């Protein structure tokens, strides 16, 4: 049964319609702040609201613009109950529209430069070898 659900789930289409991401997490003290910031960055990048509930770490509720509506640090707060009234909806973002293809252009440019450098190097070697063989023996 689970296989059929996963088989038919088109993740990119699902995320395109998502208005709220519920993100359960479990961190440790040293990495908790970084993981929370990364989750907020991804929510802004994709343009949807996010609730990140961390079992051990920093929980946060943010909208698609990155505005914080509630937060709780498991390590510093004695009362571990929090409430956040979070607006749910999408914010159109360029990354959500074009995805990782934004990185394809610089990658293709870099490949072109490397290809040009390799071809130039080989051409110089071939010309030098041709000049060496073209010289008459003295």
TrEMBL record:
Q: Which residues form a coiled coil?
A: none
Q: Give me the segments passing through the membrane.
A: none
Superkingdom of the organism of origin: Bacteria
- Could you tell me one molecular function GO term of this UniProt entry? N-acyltransferase activity
Its GO CC terms are: membrane
The GO biological-process annotations, alphabetized, read as: lipoprotein biosynthetic process
Protein's name in the database: Uncharacterized protein
What organism is this sequence from?
A: Chondromyces apiculatus DSM 436
